[in-house]
Amino acid sequence: MGQAQSLGTLRGTVADSLSGQPLVGVSVGLQGQPGGTATDALGTFRLAGLAPGSYTVRVGALGYRGKAQAAMVAAGETRTVSFAIAASALNLSEVTVSQPRDPNQSLAAINQIDKVLRPVNSAQDLLRLVPGLFIAQHAGGGKAEQIFLRGFDVDHGTDFAVSVDGLPVNMVSHAHGQGYADFHFVIPETVEQLKVYKGPYTARFGDFATAGAGEFSTKTRLDASQVKLEVGRFDTRRALVMLDLLGNNNRHLFSKKSESAYVAAEYNFTNSYFDQKQDFRRFNGLAKYTGQLSDRTALTVLGSHFTSSWDASGQIPESAVREGVISRFGSIDPSEGGNTDRTNASVVLTTGLPGDAVIRQQLYYSRYNFNLFSNFTFFLNDEENGDEINQTDDRNIYGYTGTYDRDDRLGSRTLHTTFGLGTRIDNTDLTLRRAVRRTITDTITAGRVQERNFNAYLDETLALTNRLTLNAAVRADVFVFDFNGNYTDEDGARQPIDGRKTRARVSPKLNLYYQVSPTVQLFARSGFGFHSNDARGVVRGTVNDNALPRAIGYEAGSTFKPMPGMVVNAALWALHLQDELVYVGDEAIVESAGRTRRYGADLSVRYQLTRFLFADVDLNYNHGRLVGVAEGQNFIPLAPHFTSVGGLTLKNPRGFSASVRYRHLDSRAANEDNSIRARGYFLLDGVLSYTQPRFQIGATAENLLNVDWNEAQFANPSRLRGQTAPVEEQLHFTPGTPFFVKVNASVFF
């Protein structure tokens, strides 16, 4: 007891020097000593168990100038220090490889660098910030992209969880695909931070987080108001307005402490490069308030609205192009397309409690509509009218998430505890109907889904030694699947469905981190995860035993700095799925592909060559196979084998900046026996800009070499109108962007 009473404590806060807003996740440490901590959700930190003496406290965050301050701690004393740090140009020598507040975010250094360096011109580019993630669009610009990551064809989000400001993007039991993640409601210029978690190792994520999860956060404040105009090939036009409502004039809304509020809106239009004009239109609007109500209370209020409509060319068969029936940019069914909209509201209250605890509570609501016309097989089933289908989704989402964080002492060691509690309720009306040139002719299935998820998790991070950290967690999820509706059976008779099924899943996690030196961290991670099945399939019992198919993953690797200006992340990983579920959109059913296993290696390198010149590369090898299937018949369709992205970036805060980047996705099996191959590609893109305090002008070029490449690809049978040749399975594709250039101009005020 006497020894404990002789130890002291350092408390402190870290804020942005310009806005006064508290900064979250800033690294805090004592000079010359291992370990450390990071600021919490209120920008505060605590270093306990300090022997009496003089210390130098250092704080640092990427994009901010590091700062140090001397502090004298007496026996039994609690000394308070405060820091206000200023934004600065990117300097990789200041990047730290450890994440004391969130150790499972081993890609944090890479993500922070990429957000500063990699050009972002669209919502799609935001997803590409995830190392190793590729996307493909195959039904017009308004539909969610197909995602590829860690050997997965994730479809539209079945195995990768996405959130924005705590709002879930993935849709359960969606009309078009399980886990459907339409990210287009995000304005790219408003995004401030991305956190990437590969694999099922983090208890905060439940459904869909098998291959990983991506958390996007929008800005808490604007550096300046902005008006931006873009014009490009194929009748492409875009306008953006971002307005700072409070500025730096000490105006306030709810308190006399630090506050910020802004609105942003964008409008997009393009006819795209297809023979049939796409007539794509999208509007996004966002309003956000962030403020300190008191020293220990923060409030965030957000509202957004998104609407989009488009005509789509859809995927086309290779044979039709080869035989001259249509051009490479032609269409078989020109009536494909759709419209969608989403409205979001969110309130987050963060409160500091006695005992250095912080509780964060979020309530959110989303109103969502989706209406899609598509045709995968053309005239295969109906040689006269065609096989066009219409999928609709009319949905309300209600949710709550709460977390309780605190630090405790176990002897001389620090134990960080996080307890999370949440619920999500989806009420949606779903239909799948047959159509002819967007005229509804028949209903295949229709009904109402109510799907509820209740979850809780306990996450413990213990510093076993000054270098070794243990993270252990367990998560519990309960799902209630309700469906009331009908479907058409194989004989064409209408069959009613009305049922409820309840399923649960417990997912333990265990992770170890070893800090070899300030520049080298080793990690070994393992965990169970899952993704939910479509409620219609669960209630009907078609794949009832697979309501929540389990995944288990494990990996080992390191984040290290072989030299001050270089950051490297490397990992060897494996992932096993109890069942690979494939959503069949034109029948509204889920098919089971059985067990799968994947393993691979990821390598990411970021290197600062000079003060303003940076190089980066991601190399991702993946090997996946169906389990229990004969060799040669066990390929996982469309699973990537090797992917790579990289480039050179000249980043000058004032003056000229430029970037040349490549994307490579290799050829891979498009069906189980590898008899049909999806074609790989190598693309070069470029960005050029000139920036001054009051304006910016720039240009973006995609596919600089103007190569013919396939974006989305599928192996399936189809029939053209009047076709007499035998129907065979073949490759269908959506052509990728040809050479495309757009210019932009921005004014800041």
UniProtKB/TrEMBL annotation:
Organism annotation: Hymenobacter antarcticus
**What InterPro entries does its record include?**
Beta-barrel_TonB, Beta-barrel_TonB_sf, Carb-bd-like_fold, Plug_dom, Plug_dom_sf, TonB-dep_rcpt-like
Q: What main location does UniProt list?
A: membrane
What family name appears in the similarity comment? Answer: Belongs to the TonB-dependent receptor family.
Q: Where is the signal peptide?
A: none
Location of the protein in the cell:
Cell outer membrane
Keywords, alphabetical = Cell outer membrane, Membrane, Receptor, TonB box, Transmembrane, Transmembrane beta strand, Transport
Domain TonB-dependent receptor-like beta-barrel, which positions? 307-704
The protein's name: TonB-dependent receptor
Q: Which Pfam families match?
A: CarboxypepD_reg, Plug, TonB_dep_Rec_b-barrel
Q: Its membrane topology, per UniProt?
A: Multi-pass membrane protein
